[in-house]
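Dear colleagues,

As part of the handover before I leave the project, I'm documenting each prediction I ran so the next person doesn't have to rerun anything. This entry is a single chain, and its sequence is reproduced below.
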Amino acid sequence: MKQFFSRKRVLVTGASGFIGSKLCESLCAYGAEVHGIHIHELKPYHNKQIKWWQCDLKDPDSIHKIMENIKPDLIFHLASHVEGSRSIELILPTLHNNLMSTVNILTAATKIGCQRVIISGSMEESTSINTNNIPSSPYAAAKYSSSIYAKMFHELYKTPVAVARLFMVYGPGQRDLKKLIPYTIVSHLKNQNPNYTSGARLVDWIFIDDVINGLLSMAYHPQIEGQTIDIGSGMTLSVKNIVLLLLKTLNSKLSPNFGNLADRACEYTQIANTEETFNKLNWEPTTDLKQGLTATADWYKQEYSSLK
């Protein structure tokens, strides 16, 4: 793997985010020339080995100029407006930041040329156009539409694109404290009883290091263009049970308040097809849930003061 990435020019959108920053670390370690796109001001903890470009991905001319300048061999498009709320106020933000940005990336990559484009999908999107499952949120609809566009670009223009359908990613470095696992750990550190929905939803949880290895595998394995590849654990655990397992890992005395928040509408259970992914990538997750939660809890305990 190291030989493949060495001296490759790699463009990562969302490079300052949770998954993007971890991916960039691995790419730098493998000797790649990493270019990261960000829209907001960079923080002191962001990677100094990366060549940073500030750009609004909704602007097709800006992204085209940057890609023309870099001429990347590989593109990982991870930038996204991640918000699972069903609010109508999210229709336009997710349309612009998720779908339009993806179309702009695909258009520029097709015109300029590259070896492969990896688009981040979501477990919230359906895997079939014939499914009866309606997208469960504006975010899910935008992600699903992005995947359809990726397949169209490959079919019509031979764009070498594949979609990584990411399941519920967790682990050290996730700075969005509204997410379930960070929220639970921070509640423990604050000694405040956390509030949840019923916790009945079944979720496929996948550790960040496994996700990064999956994304890297998608960059160099042949004959996956035009396809959606599941990056998940292939197992589910309910929100309630993962909270209880996490609190046990923390030796916490908190009493979680399940049912204090309303369940979201149209939540479907999605499980990664890990057998199919293994056949295509020779990749499978190696971090079990207990190991992943312990590593995550340890990171938040160490970094908590800087997250306030």
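The chain has ten helices and eleven strands. The first strand starts at residue 9 and ends at 13.

All the best with the project,
I.
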